[in-house]
Design a protein that fits this description.
This protein is mainly α and about 190 residues long. The longest helix has 20 residues. The mean pLDDT is about 90. It is built from ten helices and no strands.
Amino acid sequence: KAEELADNLGFDSTLEKVQDLVEKPLIAYEEGKELTEGQLEMLEDGRALLEKAREFKPESYVPDVLLAKISEILGQKEEMIGYYESALEKVPIDVPDTDTLFTAADVRYNLAKAAYEKEEFGKSFEMIGEALRLYPDNPIYMTEHARVLLKQGKIKEAHDEIDKAIALMPGYDEAEELHQEILKLDESAEDH
């Protein structure tokens, strides 16, 4: 059914249909709500449409990014990583379009987080560094960078980075929590 619908709609209309389908489940997910059976079906229908859209325009990163997000929501980490890696190869970083550059940075940020969870800290460091080169003043990326620096034992650099993140976005919970963790490590290092 999804393939037939996508064939009739074409690439751009298929993406619009997917965005309509996954909007409510995405909002529910971001609000921390449990998804209903109907919302899970919407995500699966969206996935089927996006797979067809990838066939229409294999060079486009947009279906990959959306598929990665759907996979994240469904708890399918390996699929999420695969889609982000596919998008990484396609999304341009040498364009003046800020939406595209943000997507390029965000793909790298998500790959950095995934690599961190898999304890691949070198890859995590590389990906978050690339994200920061594209968006140097992003406090969310800075926080992830500080987390990786801390894991590498670079407490002072992590402290400096988290201070910058907090200055840019006061009240950002993840940054504040990491800041407290760094302060404890700073204190214990001073005690020795």
